[in-house]
Amino acid sequence: MSEPITFPRPAMFVWRFSNHLHVRLRTLNFWRWLGVSGQLLAIMIVYLGLDFQLPAGWCFFFIALSAVFNLILLWSYPQSALLGEREAVAFLSFDVLQLTALLMLTGGIENPFTLLYLAPVVICAANLSFFATAIMVALSLACIILITLVHEPLPWFESKPLVLPSLYVAGSFTSLVLGLGFTTVYTWRTAYEARSLQAALAATQEVLAKEQRLSELGALAAATAHELGTPLGTITVVARELERDLPASSPLIEDVRLLRSQAERCRDILKRLSNQRTDDDDTANRLPLTALLEEIAAPHQGFGIEITFEPNTQTEPTVRRSLELVHCLGNVIENAVDYATARVSVAWSADPDTIGFTINDDGPGFDLGIIDRLGEPYLTTRAEGQLRSVDQPANAHAEGHVGMGLGIFITKTLVERAGGRFEAGNNPSGGAVVALTWPRALLERKPTRKLAEAPADPV
User: Fold this and answer.
1) pLDDT tens digits, 315-348
2) Of residues 195, 82, 93, 188, the one with CA closest to residue 135
3) What CATH code is carried by the domain that includes residue 351?
4) What is the pLDDT, as a whole number, of residue 416?
5) How far apart are CA 227 and CA 232, in angstroms?
6) How far apart are CA 375 and CA 408, in angstroms?
7) CA-CA distance, 29 to 62, in Å (whole number)?
8) 287 and 421 housed in the same domain
9) Is residue 2 part of a domain?
């Protein structure tokens, strides 16, 4: 048996550093050079242009310290290096502390450039884990409190000293903290959803790749039969010639007959393989719709849940065995069997443009709290050995089945990518209902790829 596919799932809250999230050093270096340039320009304008008094020597020292730190990183790491979370948090922490030192020398919380505290936190929230972001937020808040309590006066005209009201300072502190919190949460949540979607799409591609590999095994067998048919035919001809030329009393006659019979047996096996599920085999790849539904549902029978197929008086279409259709319907039927109490029904309908499938179960139905979010990646209420309803015991099909929340997402993605529709809801009489609609032309289209016919027996 092949190993089951496992997919990385982004965690909502992970209280440790992540091993798969990284930041490119080039990005941090670029923003640090940008910060150094801006800080240097601001100090020169205030100190030389406006002639405000401030400890310019210490200010230039901390700016130079940031520049030297960047040069050390450029010398120590290649620019294409990916920094782990610990390194990224350490480097961003240096930026926060350097900014804190400058603000303490130039007015503290009264300095309008306190807004720059958002930059390292936003970079962290957009690229790193919740734990790393929480560390950065905690450090920034501690530094904001520090510059509020301990700082040099804000540089200003000596003839017109600026004294800001305490209420205004408190408002500035509050707005900065609230802005930091809101920006961090929004940025991290947006980045988390983007990573989740990317991981789920990668999972979808891997599922389809696996299905494609399984489908191509039949074609590989046919190609193998085609290639081996001729040399095995030659071996059979030579064996027959040897059998005819050897006298009946020869001690080799039985060996030659055995060689001929085994060569013929190999050719018969390869001939059968060449006739199995090639792309031009209508029996295997094009079949009535009900027969395809029964084939898809077959692996989910025998678990104490009855799967029925609703009768339909319409002319039954003949469709091809599409990998996407097989995977989507199999996924929905499996879910229905997992949650059903006793029965799952499958129905189809057709019109000139579309073919629709409806799967009903008699289980507890979808939770009202998530029904509007169906189709989002990693959305699941299934826990190990349990179903949606704690009052309903897990059946044999669902027992031990831990949901990852990717099944409905993959199904919806494949259906919509094919130009169809995915709809899910609850029956008024109880149970869940899922409806899939596919373009009819897509399901009835004949495959264009064909394999060469197996060679005729040269004997």
Assistant:
1) 888 888 777 788 888 888 888 888 888 889 999 9
2) 93
3) 3.30.565.10
4) 81
5) 10
6) 5
7) 16
8) yes
9) no
Residues 75 and 103 in one domain: yes
Number of H helices, E strands in the chain: 12, 9
Structural domain of 93: 23-164
d(CA 32, CA 99): 11
Mean pLDDT of 89-117: 91
Average pLDDT, the chain: 77
In the structure encoding, which two tokens stand for residue 454, read together?
A: 């197996």
Could you tell me the pTM of the whole model?
0.49
Contact 422, 412 (CB under 8 A): yes
CB environment 85-103: b (16+ within 10 A), e (fewer):
bebbbebbbbbbebbbbbb
> Do 331 and 436 form a contact (C-beta atoms < 8 A)?
no
Last residue of a domain, one of 281, 296, 322: 281
Q: How many domains does the chain have?
A: 3
Clarify whether residues 433 and 300 are in a common domain: yes
Decide if 182 is inside a domain: no
Residues 276 and 305 occupy one common structural domain: no
pLDDT of 405 over the 50 cut: yes
Residue 9 has which token pair? Answer: 């799932």
